[in-house]
Amino acid sequence: MMSNPLLEVNGLTKSFGGVVAVDKVDFHLNPGEIVAVIGPNGAGKTTLFNMITGVLPPTSGKVYFNEKEITGKQPYQIAKEGITRTFQNLQVFENMTVIENVMTGVHCRLKTGFLTSGFRLPLVRREEKQASEIAMHYLDKVGIADLAHEDSKVLPYGNQRLLEIARAAASSPKLILLDEPMAGLNPQESAQLVQVIKQMRGEGMSFLFVEHDMETVMGISDRIVVIDYGKKIAEGTPAEIYENEKVIAAYLGTDDEEAI
Q1: In the chain, at which end, N or C, are there fewer CB atoms within 10 A of the end residue's CB?
Q2: Under DSSP, is residue 229 helix (H, G, I), strand (E, B) or coil?
Q3: Domains annotated on the chain, with CATH
Q4: Half-sphere exposure of 61 (CA within 13 A, CB side)
Q5: What is the pLDDT of residues 75-103, one digit of tens each?
Q6: Does Nucleotide-binding count among this protein's keywords (predicted)?
Q7: Are 24 and 11 in contact (CB under 8 A)?
Protein backbone atom coordinates (compact mmCIF):
# COMPACT_ATOMS: atom_id res chain seq x y z
CA MET A 1 0.00 0.00 0.00
CA MET A 2 1.43 3.36 -1.05
CA SER A 3 1.82 5.98 1.69
CA ASN A 4 0.81 9.57 1.11
CA PRO A 5 3.65 12.00 0.31
CA LEU A 6 5.20 13.75 3.29
CA LEU A 7 5.92 16.87 1.22
CA GLU A 8 4.15 18.03 -1.93
CA VAL A 9 5.22 21.03 -3.99
CA ASN A 10 2.67 22.03 -6.63
CA GLY A 11 3.39 24.67 -9.28
CA LEU A 12 5.65 26.67 -6.98
CA THR A 13 6.69 29.97 -8.56
CA LYS A 14 8.68 32.99 -7.37
CA SER A 15 9.16 36.19 -9.35
CA PHE A 16 11.38 39.10 -8.39
CA GLY A 17 10.12 41.98 -10.51
CA GLY A 18 10.36 40.70 -14.07
CA VAL A 19 12.72 37.82 -13.19
CA VAL A 20 11.19 34.38 -12.60
CA ALA A 21 13.56 32.63 -10.20
CA VAL A 22 11.42 29.49 -9.75
CA ASP A 23 8.90 28.57 -12.43
CA LYS A 24 6.00 26.17 -11.71
CA VAL A 25 8.08 23.51 -9.95
CA ASP A 26 6.32 20.27 -8.93
CA PHE A 27 7.71 17.37 -6.93
CA HIS A 28 7.01 15.29 -3.86
CA LEU A 29 8.93 13.51 -1.11
CA ASN A 30 7.71 10.32 0.55
CA PRO A 31 8.21 9.45 4.23
CA GLY A 32 11.73 8.13 4.84
CA GLU A 33 13.11 9.35 1.50
CA ILE A 34 16.31 11.25 0.82
CA VAL A 35 15.68 13.53 -2.17
CA ALA A 36 18.28 15.82 -3.75
CA VAL A 37 17.62 19.05 -5.63
CA ILE A 38 20.43 19.80 -8.06
CA GLY A 39 21.12 22.28 -10.83
CA PRO A 40 23.71 24.81 -12.02
CA ASN A 41 24.48 27.90 -9.93
CA GLY A 42 21.59 30.36 -10.03
CA ALA A 43 19.05 27.69 -10.99
CA GLY A 44 16.68 28.66 -8.15
CA LYS A 45 17.41 25.89 -5.64
CA THR A 46 17.85 28.05 -2.54
CA THR A 47 14.84 30.19 -3.51
CA LEU A 48 12.82 26.97 -3.68
CA PHE A 49 14.00 26.01 -0.17
CA ASN A 50 13.15 29.47 1.12
CA MET A 51 9.57 29.17 -0.12
CA ILE A 52 9.10 25.70 1.37
CA THR A 53 10.34 26.88 4.79
CA GLY A 54 8.45 30.20 4.81
CA VAL A 55 11.46 32.50 4.44
CA LEU A 56 9.98 33.77 1.15
CA PRO A 57 6.30 33.83 0.15
CA PRO A 58 5.67 32.21 -3.25
CA THR A 59 4.23 34.25 -6.09
CA SER A 60 1.98 31.28 -6.85
CA GLY A 61 1.74 27.57 -6.17
CA LYS A 62 1.12 25.44 -3.10
CA VAL A 63 3.17 23.54 -0.52
CA TYR A 64 1.64 20.68 1.47
CA PHE A 65 3.22 18.89 4.42
CA ASN A 66 1.57 15.84 5.94
CA GLU A 67 -1.43 16.60 3.72
CA LYS A 68 -1.79 20.05 5.31
CA GLU A 69 -1.22 23.23 3.32
CA ILE A 70 1.66 25.29 4.71
CA THR A 71 1.96 27.80 1.85
CA GLY A 72 2.84 31.26 3.14
CA LYS A 73 3.14 30.25 6.81
CA GLN A 74 5.86 31.83 8.93
CA PRO A 75 9.10 29.86 9.47
CA TYR A 76 8.34 29.24 13.16
CA GLN A 77 4.91 27.84 12.24
CA ILE A 78 6.45 25.52 9.65
CA ALA A 79 9.08 24.41 12.18
CA LYS A 80 6.30 23.45 14.60
CA GLU A 81 4.73 21.32 11.85
CA GLY A 82 7.96 19.28 11.72
CA ILE A 83 10.29 20.86 9.13
CA THR A 84 13.73 22.20 10.03
CA ARG A 85 16.64 23.29 7.86
CA THR A 86 20.27 24.26 7.67
CA PHE A 87 21.62 27.09 5.55
CA GLN A 88 24.25 27.39 2.84
CA ASN A 89 26.18 29.77 5.11
CA LEU A 90 26.81 28.50 8.64
CA GLN A 91 24.29 29.76 11.22
CA VAL A 92 26.04 28.87 14.48
CA PHE A 93 25.55 30.93 17.65
CA GLU A 94 29.19 31.76 18.34
CA ASN A 95 28.52 33.15 21.83
CA MET A 96 27.19 29.76 23.00
CA THR A 97 28.81 26.43 23.73
CA VAL A 98 28.24 23.50 21.41
CA ILE A 99 25.59 21.90 23.63
CA GLU A 100 23.81 25.23 24.16
CA ASN A 101 23.55 25.61 20.38
CA VAL A 102 21.87 22.23 20.07
CA MET A 103 19.58 22.94 23.03
CA THR A 104 18.10 25.87 21.10
CA GLY A 105 16.78 23.27 18.66
CA VAL A 106 15.15 21.33 21.50
CA HIS A 107 13.24 24.24 23.02
CA CYS A 108 10.42 24.22 20.46
CA ARG A 109 9.52 20.73 21.81
CA LEU A 110 9.24 21.89 25.42
CA LYS A 111 6.44 23.53 27.41
CA THR A 112 8.66 26.27 28.83
CA GLY A 113 10.69 28.76 26.83
CA PHE A 114 13.58 31.19 27.21
CA LEU A 115 11.41 33.78 29.03
CA THR A 116 10.31 31.42 31.81
CA SER A 117 13.67 29.69 32.11
CA GLY A 118 15.03 32.54 34.24
CA PHE A 119 12.62 31.73 37.08
CA ARG A 120 14.20 28.30 37.80
CA LEU A 121 10.82 26.67 38.44
CA PRO A 122 10.76 22.88 38.97
CA LEU A 123 9.25 22.28 35.51
CA VAL A 124 11.91 24.53 33.98
CA ARG A 125 14.70 22.62 35.72
CA ARG A 126 13.29 19.28 34.55
CA GLU A 127 12.95 20.50 30.99
CA GLU A 128 16.46 21.98 30.96
CA LYS A 129 17.79 18.57 32.02
CA GLN A 130 15.69 16.92 29.31
CA ALA A 131 16.93 19.42 26.70
CA SER A 132 20.53 18.76 27.72
CA GLU A 133 20.05 14.98 27.42
CA ILE A 134 18.44 15.30 23.98
CA ALA A 135 21.21 17.64 22.82
CA MET A 136 23.89 15.19 23.99
CA HIS A 137 22.10 12.36 22.17
CA TYR A 138 22.33 14.19 18.84
CA LEU A 139 25.86 15.43 19.46
CA ASP A 140 26.79 11.78 20.00
CA LYS A 141 24.95 10.85 16.78
CA VAL A 142 27.04 13.28 14.72
CA GLY A 143 30.24 12.31 16.53
CA ILE A 144 31.12 15.49 18.44
CA ALA A 145 29.76 14.77 21.94
CA ASP A 146 33.29 15.19 23.33
CA LEU A 147 33.14 18.86 22.24
CA ALA A 148 29.82 19.60 23.98
CA HIS A 149 31.20 22.23 26.36
CA GLU A 150 33.57 23.92 23.92
CA ASP A 151 32.79 27.38 22.57
CA SER A 152 31.17 26.80 19.20
CA LYS A 153 33.22 29.54 17.55
CA VAL A 154 36.46 27.58 18.03
CA LEU A 155 35.20 24.46 16.22
CA PRO A 156 36.73 23.61 12.84
CA TYR A 157 34.43 24.27 9.90
CA GLY A 158 33.51 20.61 9.42
CA ASN A 159 32.49 20.22 13.06
CA GLN A 160 30.37 23.37 12.84
CA ARG A 161 28.49 21.70 9.96
CA LEU A 162 27.90 18.65 12.14
CA LEU A 163 26.73 20.95 14.94
CA GLU A 164 24.13 22.47 12.60
CA ILE A 165 22.84 19.02 11.68
CA ALA A 166 22.58 18.05 15.36
CA ARG A 167 20.66 21.24 16.16
CA ALA A 168 18.27 20.69 13.24
CA ALA A 169 17.63 17.10 14.34
CA ALA A 170 17.17 17.98 18.02
CA SER A 171 13.62 19.23 17.45
CA SER A 172 12.70 15.71 16.20
CA PRO A 173 11.47 16.94 12.81
CA LYS A 174 9.85 14.73 10.23
CA LEU A 175 11.78 16.50 7.44
CA ILE A 176 15.17 18.23 7.41
CA LEU A 177 16.19 20.50 4.53
CA LEU A 178 19.94 20.76 4.02
CA ASP A 179 21.33 23.57 1.85
CA GLU A 180 24.74 22.44 0.49
CA PRO A 181 25.68 20.41 3.60
CA MET A 182 28.95 19.19 2.06
CA ALA A 183 30.25 22.67 1.16
CA GLY A 184 33.73 23.21 2.60
CA LEU A 185 34.08 19.66 3.93
CA ASN A 186 37.03 17.40 3.15
CA PRO A 187 36.35 13.87 1.85
CA GLN A 188 36.54 12.31 5.33
CA GLU A 189 34.11 14.87 6.79
CA SER A 190 31.73 14.40 3.84
CA ALA A 191 31.76 10.62 4.34
CA GLN A 192 31.03 11.10 8.05
CA LEU A 193 28.09 13.41 7.30
CA VAL A 194 26.66 10.91 4.80
CA GLN A 195 26.67 8.25 7.52
CA VAL A 196 24.98 10.67 9.95
CA ILE A 197 22.19 11.36 7.44
CA LYS A 198 21.68 7.64 6.84
CA GLN A 199 21.51 6.96 10.59
CA MET A 200 18.93 9.71 11.09
CA ARG A 201 16.87 8.37 8.20
CA GLY A 202 16.89 5.11 10.12
CA GLU A 203 15.31 6.98 13.05
CA GLY A 204 12.41 8.07 10.84
CA MET A 205 13.62 11.41 9.49
CA SER A 206 13.36 12.37 5.82
CA PHE A 207 15.77 14.66 3.96
CA LEU A 208 15.54 17.15 1.11
CA PHE A 209 18.90 18.61 0.20
CA VAL A 210 20.65 20.88 -2.27
CA GLU A 211 24.16 19.78 -3.13
CA HIS A 212 26.87 20.30 -5.77
CA ASP A 213 28.95 17.28 -4.74
CA MET A 214 27.64 14.85 -7.34
CA GLU A 215 29.37 11.83 -5.83
CA THR A 216 27.40 12.42 -2.62
CA VAL A 217 24.17 13.10 -4.52
CA MET A 218 24.42 9.91 -6.54
CA GLY A 219 25.47 7.83 -3.54
CA ILE A 220 22.84 8.85 -1.00
CA SER A 221 19.72 9.97 -2.88
CA ASP A 222 16.63 7.86 -3.46
CA ARG A 223 15.47 10.36 -6.09
CA ILE A 224 16.83 13.53 -7.65
CA VAL A 225 15.02 16.67 -8.86
CA VAL A 226 16.92 18.76 -11.41
CA ILE A 227 16.25 22.49 -11.86
CA ASP A 228 17.67 24.74 -14.57
CA TYR A 229 16.77 28.41 -15.00
CA GLY A 230 14.04 27.97 -12.39
CA LYS A 231 12.27 25.10 -14.20
CA LYS A 232 12.25 21.42 -13.31
CA ILE A 233 13.88 19.65 -16.25
CA ALA A 234 14.12 16.12 -14.83
CA GLU A 235 13.24 13.89 -11.88
CA GLY A 236 14.18 10.29 -11.22
CA THR A 237 16.54 7.85 -9.59
CA PRO A 238 20.29 8.54 -9.61
CA ALA A 239 20.72 6.05 -12.47
CA GLU A 240 18.00 7.76 -14.53
CA ILE A 241 19.40 11.24 -13.89
CA TYR A 242 22.94 10.12 -14.71
CA GLU A 243 21.86 9.23 -18.25
CA ASN A 244 19.35 12.07 -18.81
CA GLU A 245 20.32 14.15 -21.86
CA LYS A 246 18.64 17.32 -20.57
CA VAL A 247 20.64 17.10 -17.35
CA ILE A 248 23.89 16.50 -19.24
CA ALA A 249 23.17 19.53 -21.44
CA ALA A 250 22.38 21.74 -18.42
CA TYR A 251 25.66 20.88 -16.72
CA LEU A 252 27.99 20.48 -19.68
CA GLY A 253 26.37 22.61 -22.38
CA THR A 254 25.15 21.53 -25.81
CA ASP A 255 27.25 21.28 -28.93
CA ASP A 256 25.64 24.48 -30.20
CA GLU A 257 26.63 26.37 -27.05
CA GLU A 258 30.19 25.06 -27.27
CA ALA A 259 30.44 26.33 -30.83
CA ILE A 260 29.59 29.92 -29.79
Answers
A1: N
A2: coil
A3: 1-82+176-186+206-252 (3.40.50.300), 90-172 (3.40.50.300)
A4: 22
A5: 989 998 999 998 767 778 888 999 999 99
A6: yes
A7: yes
